[in-house]
Design goal:
This protein is an alpha/beta fold. The chain has two domains: 87 residues, Nonspecific Lipid-transfer Protein, Chain A; 303 residues, 3-Layer(aba) Sandwich (Rossmann fold). Helix content is 43%, strand content 19%. It has a seven-stranded mixed beta sheet with strand order 8-7-6-9-10-13-12. It has a four-stranded mixed beta sheet with strand order 2-1-3-4. The radius of gyration is 23 Å and the shape is elongated. It starts with a helix and ends with a helix.
Amino acid sequence: MLDNMMINRFKSGLGGQSLPLSIRFWNGETLRFGERASVLLSLNSARAAASLSKPTLGKFARCYVEGEIDLEGDIHEILSLGEKLCAEGECLVQDKKGSQAWKWWRHTRARDRKNISYHYDVSNDFYALWLDQKRVYSCAYFRHPDDTLEAAQEAKLDHICKKLMLQSGESLLDIGCGWGGLVLWAAQHYGVHAVGITLSQNQHDYVREQVKARGLEGRVEVRLMDYRDVPPDMQFDKIASVGMFEHVGRGNLDGYFDKIFSLLKPGGLVMNHGITAAGLDSRGLGSGISEFIDDYVFPGGELVHAARVIESLARSGLECLDAENLRPHYARTLWQWVHRLEAHSSEARRLIGEQKYRIWRIYMAGSAHAFDRGWMALFQILAGKPLANGSLPYPFTRDHVYT
């Protein structure tokens, strides 16, 4: 009786929609919607049906990760179908006064180190399954629609180097250097002296191995260090931060750019490359998505609108020179990551287990869908530190970036 009540409650929650969906209940009953059932949703318990009787995208993700449901079918269709099943208009939400997301204690040094380790110190071999050969874990730059991921990531690294106008002999700081893609590329192709910092032990150890293997000792250095602890006497011609400032926290943005300003030589340039919110006063994604990401994927991650980023860096004395939205590039990047992960699903499960495999699969696919839908953006914001007389040597055009 209880099973039938739960099943009927779940059916009524779907509102009789015609969808390319089949639902298999825990008692063996299968319910088919529409003529083309390309997605199979298996409800493994009455609890799952109760949870999803009023579904949100966050609930779907949680139930999938916890094994309460199984999802079979093309991941693109699964995400599109999930959105249709959930309440419309709830994926972009505005900031609420007193939101816990902006509390200072979310971003102490110890907490940030723990959060970074949770996400990045999973397994270097796991990331190698689906990243490009340089292990660049950030938005690629597709100069042509049919570019391979490898080509697009190299294009991104070069895009950043050209925007920063790197010159041989200059010093470069990469805040949140990942597996070293940018510092290694900049040293090898632009002749700079690069310092990369990261809070991930796995990334730090990997970069050190790559520096040695490529004979770049003395030209590339990696440190296990919080950006707030970079010594003030270290001064750099250029600074890059790629896919890192999402971890900084809204309440710390001014301090973050103050630190960058203090480390940048007068006349120097900084590139801030990161995910931004689509809504001007957004506190993240709605439909339970932000809460799922905070609990399972990026603890402490926070997004702000690009306008807030420019406002904050301006308060620190930096001058914005260029802002480019790469949103469609990140959607394409993420879909490629998802397809590569799925192609290596057996090995991924062996390396990190079923639950973590599900976390990364649904998180990256959901993020790709969000970028496609315009719920998030990805901005490269270039800024400079003016000289004492207020001038800032930078070309009148962007020809140097595209030639």
